[in-house]
Amino acid sequence: MEKNSSRSFSNFSLGITCLIAFITIILVRVVYVIYRTGKPLNRRSPPQALATLIVLGSGGHTAEMINLLLVLQKDRFTPRFYIAAATDNMSLQKARVLETSWADSQSGVKGISAGFMQIYRSREVGQSYVTSVWTTLVATVHALWLMIKIRPQVVLCNDPGTCFPLCVIAFIFKVVGIRWSSIFYVESIARVKRLSLSGLLLYKLQIADQFFVQWPQLQRKYPRAHYVGCLM
């Protein structure tokens, strides 16, 4: 009886020790990823094509992202994958038009090589924060499947709620060593005095590698952000 009790206690102690060691390793890895966030990876390595995920939002968000993509080094950030909310067809249509115009401008190129996908929205406009908890969980599961499929090296987003679960999963991928994705977040020009909910979460949690704002007063309020002027 005493031997069985002693063996059970030893197994329990071993399990607790392994759990503590695992949690410690994860915490150390999280701290390392946060420390490395925003820093260049390897300047000595030659430039290579980077699989790029572009998160589109409805209305003005897509217009801002299109303006940003116009100055993108297309040969460097390729292949490109566009993601928009399941209820947003207009944004993906605009992205297809942009990619088609790029393909037409290149001699010898037939068709477009970009991917276009839709994702469940984390939170609809006007939706209560209570009900958005469930929709965020659903969107996160869907986002996980898409991120495993794409495994982007660069994530570009500018405020749509759909970007948050994608960015969180990209951060988790960095922690567990699946893929190191550089996350670039550009706050919407409509945000003059305070950040959006997505932007605030990404800023406070230090998930984004580079965080850009379009108004100088926002940069003063959030000093880790970079002021880039108006993109529109």
TrEMBL record:
The answer on whether this UniProt entry bears the keyword Manganese reads no
Q: Specify whether Transmembrane helix is a keyword of the entry.
A: yes
- What InterPro entries does the entry give? Oligosacch_biosynth_Alg14
Provide the membrane topology annotation: Single-pass membrane protein
Source superkingdom: Eukaryota
> Where found?
Endoplasmic reticulum membrane
- Keywords carried by this UniProt record: Endoplasmic reticulum, Membrane, Transmembrane, Transmembrane helix
Listed transmembrane segments:
12-35, 47-72, 129-148, 168-186
The primary location reported for this protein is: endoplasmic reticulum
Q: Which PANTHER family match?
A: GLYCOSYL TRANSFERASE-RELATED (PTHR12154), UDP-N-ACETYLGLUCOSAMINE TRANSFERASE SUBUNIT ALG14 HOMOLOG (PTHR12154:SF4)
The similarity annotation says:
Belongs to the ALG14 family.
The identity of this protein, by name, is UDP-N-acetylglucosamine transferase subunit ALG14
Organism this protein belongs to: Hibiscus sabdariffa
